[in-house]
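Task: encode each sequence below as structure tokens.

Item 1
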Amino acid sequence: MRGTQFRIWATQKLKEYIIKGFVMDDERLENGKVAKTYFQEWEERIRKIRTSEANFYQKVRDVFATSVDYNPKADYAQKFFCGSAKC
């Protein structure tokens, strides 16, 4: 019985990891049973992800700007470089 319960729990956690790329212990978070450095570690990870994402998008913009038919005044180019923000 306990083996079956464990396999069900483990399968749920693995599925969550595969889909999201991470798993969090919500029960421990809700009950306040986490080390004080836990959130600092997550902030550091998130900061690295954001930096990596910014570097990736900069490389994409660099490639776009060096394309043969690039016209910086074209609507599509201005929309591309503005991203989701209104320019």
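Item 2
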Amino acid sequence: MPLYQTRARRRDGEQTYTGISRSRRQKLSWAIQRKGIRIKEVKIFEKLISQIISRHNNAFKLVRQRQELNLEPAATHATQADIITIFTQLLHTIPGYTFIADGLDKYTYLDNSSASIKKFLHDVTNAVISTHTQVLFISRNKPEIQQALIKDAPKSFNKYKIIPEDIQSDTAIFSQDIINRKLPNKTDNIQSTISETITNQCQGQFLWLKIQKDSLRAGINKKQLQHAIEDTPTRLNDLYDHN
């Protein structure tokens, strides 16, 4: 699973942001990009540990000392319980991190059980308790994720539901950029009208805009462009089937 730095402003349709209110200094993130993929939970924690020790000598020394004392195997060979223990100790040793879990809902399963997504959330929330670490979970409104967070989250957890109006200016800018690139031969009036149409139609979903841009062809007229947009489903699952 690839990791990358991500901005908190990244949004994709209707999502829920849930995070711990703590001091913010440095950011590490893990991204979930392919729908329905299975991955071992331990691999996520391994990646996070690798990110931490690459930035802090103290963290590297802690992991190496545990290996030399034979209290825990090296992170790449440790059991899942060992790695979660090391991860928790690192959070107590190196304060001030913000972890971002982006697209959590896109993992249908972790490992081989749908219940393991709940265990993953349980392990993360337990690890950050009594530390100065904060976690930002970015996800669509999935009942199993919401229930797990409600059950395990400490009082310092806050939830914010993103609505289309929150990001309307962002989607408008993105829409206009698409129109400028896809329909350079159209008049300013047509470009403005089509941009406004797809901004309203996307319901705050950047992925919808990205997919929809393929239907915008410079060779068709304004009426055909509007019909192509208006006939496109607004729900992403329906849009996949439509295409």
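Check on item 2: The radius of gyration is 22 Å. The chain has two domains: 16-162, 165-238.
End of task.
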